[in-house]
Each structure stands twice: as C-alpha cells, then as structure tokens.
Write a structure and sequence with these properties.
By secondary structure, this protein is α+β, with helices and mostly antiparallel strands. Helix content is about 40%, strand content about 20%. Strand 7 and strand 8 form a beta hairpin.
C-alpha cells in the first residue's frame, strides 16, 4: 500500500520524463561485493525466492540495481529487528517484482525529489509507503517498524562518495504544521491570556470556534465609576452588563463581552 499525495506523484512523473529517474534506479551495475550482505546471505535470499533470477547464465556474476542495493540495506535493518524471510515477501515484491516496481520507483524518485519517504513494516510483513503528510495523518498510529528510505539511500550515496540527498519536505515539517494554530485559535489564546477576563465561554458552530463570551467583574471599592460604565457601554457593540447596587450605590458590575471570531 502506498500513501503518496497526488501532487507529489504528478511531480515525480513529470520529473521522470525529464531526468529518467526510473532508468537510473533500475540500471544493473553493482555486484554482490557492493551490497551489505555476504554471498551466502544473498544466495539464501535467492533460495527463498526473494530475489529476481534474471541471469542468463546461472554461473555468471549477479548484477544489482541501485534499487536492489536499497532493498538489501532494508533487509539488513529488518533482520536486526528479528524479521525472518517469510516476513519479507511483500517487501521483495515492492522492490523486485516487475508487477509492483512502480511503487518502489515512485518512492525512490520522491527521495530524489527531496521528499522524506517512510517505509513501515508490521509483524505480518505488510509494507506501506508514506509521504510526510500521510505518515503524520495515518502511519504514525500503526504498530510497525519504521525505516526512512532517505537514510537508506544516503548510506549508498555516502559509500560511493556522493553528496547525501537533501530533504525539503519532512515528517518533522508536517508534524509542526499540523500543530500550528489557526487565526481563530491564536485569537482565542490572546483572549484567554487577557488578565481582565475572569471567565470565558466558547460557542462552536460546525466544529469551529464561532463566538467567545468573555466576562469581566469590577468592584467599586468605595470609588464612584458611573462615568466608566458609560464609556464601557459606548465602547462595545455586543455586551451584557449586570450592575449590583447596595444602599443606592453601585458596588460592582459584571460585563460579558461577545467576541465573534
């Protein structure tokens, strides 16, 4: 399963037409010694049908693509978590099976386009591919092993003396954006922090903040403030004022302002 936004996918397809990413990703120019695995480990993967056997001569050297190097690195990472070969079938399909190759081409292409791509693998071997937005929205809630495809590719790049792939759109960026306050939320926070208000009520409409009722109480403390009340009446278009009198004198008033957001 892949969770990559339509805009990101369209950008990859457009860039691939120009830069031939898929050809670069799938060109077989590496041998077993370039992988992080031993000859025996590679042969075991082959025996368990987790590798493509596209050699014309079975006795010839195996050749691997950039994408297959990434696959081997992911396999090594998963083995550190105790994954066994039967749990790697779907991962193998995504990276090596021609019927599913578009998924891994897209994922690696997104890394080349400076987007952070996250792979998740659960205990049953189910693989999901996420862009930052979908990982924050959906992926982070699932129990899984998480692998950054960008880190995998940077290990390959560093090994061959290449510059690591830059990230301009990351999970961290998306997480920060998802917690950024809206204009209404910022205004509500300003009202809450106003020390003049002793109580605040919020009325929501269609799930959004609609109206805030902010209450002030002021005591006379023996000082007349009729003029102040008159000024308050003139200052606000929407407010309720309750006046408390004792022995013919105003001792306090409570004003509830209606603030539309």
């Amino acid at each position: 399963m892949y969770y990559i936004g339509e805009g990101i996918e369209i950008d990859f397809l457009s860039a691939n037409d120009k830069f031939n990413y898929v050809e670069f990703i799938n060109e077989k120019r590496f041998t077993v010694k370039d992988t992080p695995l031993t000859y025996r480990q590679v042969n075991t993967l082959s025996e368990d049908k987790l590798l493509n056997e596209d050699r014309k001569n079975k006795n010839g050297w195996r050749r691997f693509s950039f994408k297959e190097l990434a696959f081997f690195l992911i396999v090594r990472e998963l083995k550190l978590f105790g994954f066994e070969h039967h749990q790697l079938k779907e991962l193998s399909d995504y990276f090596l099976n021609k019927d599913y190759s578009y998924l891994s081409d897209l994922a690696i292409g997104c890394v080349l386009r400076k987007i952070e791509i996250t792979l998740t693998i659960d205990s049953e071997g189910k693989v999901s591919i996420f862009d930052p937005g979908f990982y924050v929205l959906v992926g982070a809630r699932m129990p899984h092993v998480r692998i950054s495809l960008n880190e995998i590719m940077n290990k390959i790049a560093t090994k061959y003396g290449k510059t690591p792939f830059e990230i301009k759109y990351s999970v961290k960026d998306e997480a920060l954006n998802s917690h950024r306050l809206s204009v209404k939320e910022e205004e509500l926070l300003r009202i809450i922090r106003n020390k003049d208000y002793g109580a605040i009520r919020i009325k929501k409409k269609n799930g959004e903040i609609g109206v805030v009722y902010a209450e002030k109480i002021k005591n006379a403390n023996g000082q007349p403030f009729e003029n102040e009340l008159i000024n308050m009446l003139k200052a606000k278009d929407f407010q309720d004022i309750n006046i408390i009198k004792r022995d013919g004198k105003i001792v306090s008033y409570k004003i509830e302002e209606t603030i539309k957001l």
